[in-house]
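For the sake of clarity, the format in which proteins appear in this thesis is described at this point. Each number in the token line that follows is a code from a learned vocabulary of backbone shapes. One such record is shown here in full, so that the layout can be seen directly:
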Amino acid sequence: MRNLNLDQLQTLIAITDLGTFAAAAQALHLAPPTVSMHIKELESRLGAELVVRGRRQADLTPAGEVLVREGRQLLLASDDLVERVRRHASGREGMVRVGVSAGVSTRLLPRMLEALAAH
């Protein structure tokens, strides 16, 4: 079983950035109980307390700080991966192999590569 849910991680990062569960709920367009549930489930999955809930603000535990720091990179990598797969699926990314003679390579190939790069 996977121990990390990216939606729950995004919720934790929003709480960190915005300071409260309520602000994170509003920014993520989630009900406040859903935000609380995300954090409880994430803490349960990881077996670690991640957030100290105060009356006015939520503070990260040391484990929460590690998760948020590394989690930001993970979410960026996830977004990048999704974009690359979509580009591949749409034909906007891939490998092209071209074989040309020496004469063509100096005159025609640079123009061909420019045209290819423009698309």
Observations:
- The chain has one domain: 6-118.
